[in-house]
Write a structure and sequence with these properties.
With about 260 residues, this protein is an alpha/beta fold. It has 6 helices and 11 strands. Bound molecules: zinc ion.
Amino acid sequence: MIGIFGGSGFYSLLDNAETTIRETPFGAPSSPITLGTIGRQEVAFIARHGVHHEYPPHKIPYKANLYAFRELGVSRVIAPAAVGSLKREIAPGTFVIPDQFVNFASRDDTFFNEVPVTHVSSADPYCPELRKLLAGMANLLNLPVRDGGTVVVINGPRFASRAESTFYQSLGDVINMTQYPEVMLAREMEMCYASVCLVTDYDVGIKDNDSIMPVSAQEVAEGFKQNSEKLKRLILDCIPNVPAARVCNCKNSLENARFS
Ligand SMILES: [Zn+2]
């Protein structure tokens, strides 16, 4: 099964959808989970921010969301996200398929708080197989796409100051508030995780951008809306092309990760 963090815009297309409400040891997920099939592929949808967008980034029940996906049998997660650009050459409207993150968010970010002490590698946190598939499909659809990139993750809910933004530019390509700990919680559960980051605006610290008004939440929402049909098409077109067997290493994340 493939898990997707997407709202009703995604699953309203399914004609065989059903909804299930799940509890987990970490509380309820952000939303009821919608289950259905695309082609022969089973899919599960969670609205990351809640059905009525009631969860700000720092309040999202990340552990409950990933745990619920795993309990349903999800082995791969596709996670669309809105991001700000940290590079002049990455224009709004670009789809970035990231391969790295730099985290500044301070959150409950692990399932492993007990023995055995477990250290999962985050050297390559995003699934290379899913990333290639998404980037290839974006090319096929003639979407402006960047295969690979570093997401700087901040806690939010406030946007970065100009000085912070200038600092973040030296570290990454785009900036976001939800990629972490989502990506690593998936990895801890040996699920593949790939993101499609839709650039909605330039971050405030971009050089020559001083005259530009800082981004507002409304602008982000508008930027996302303008491109949401393309985003939906990209992800839904990818689903039938996901191979049945996983050949990446995501499924072996816990091998050699524990002190015996
Ligand atoms: Zn993988």
